[in-house]
Inverse folding.
């Protein structure tokens, strides 16, 4: 019996491990360098706007675990029940002080 492996049986490497991905990353780095070096004033002028635009995006992507904004429900993470805060220690009466 002949058990030789052919090139058709091997799976191709994932995209990010191929030489095309390396070339894409290098070209993207070069393009980013030239865009930032030539348009630095435009980029720095847009930073405050980008900061303001990031707020709604963070709100959308960081509240995905909460299940909506229901009224008055505590936030549970996982299956752990919410623990009650420890009871406050009784304070000494103020009349006992000298």
């Amino acid at each position: 019996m002949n058990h030789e492996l052919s090139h058709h049986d091997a799976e191709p490497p994932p995209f990010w491990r191929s030489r095309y991905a390396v070339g894409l990353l290098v070209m993207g780095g070069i393009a980013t360098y030239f865009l930032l070096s030539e348009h630095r004033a435009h980029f720095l002028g847009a930073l405050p706007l980008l900061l303001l635009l990031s707020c709604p995006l963070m709100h959308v992507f960081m509240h995905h675990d909460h299940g909506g904004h229901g009224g008055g429900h505590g936030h549970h993470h996982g299956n752990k029940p919410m623990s009650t805060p420890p009871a406050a220690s009784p304070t000494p009466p103020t009349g006992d002080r000298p």
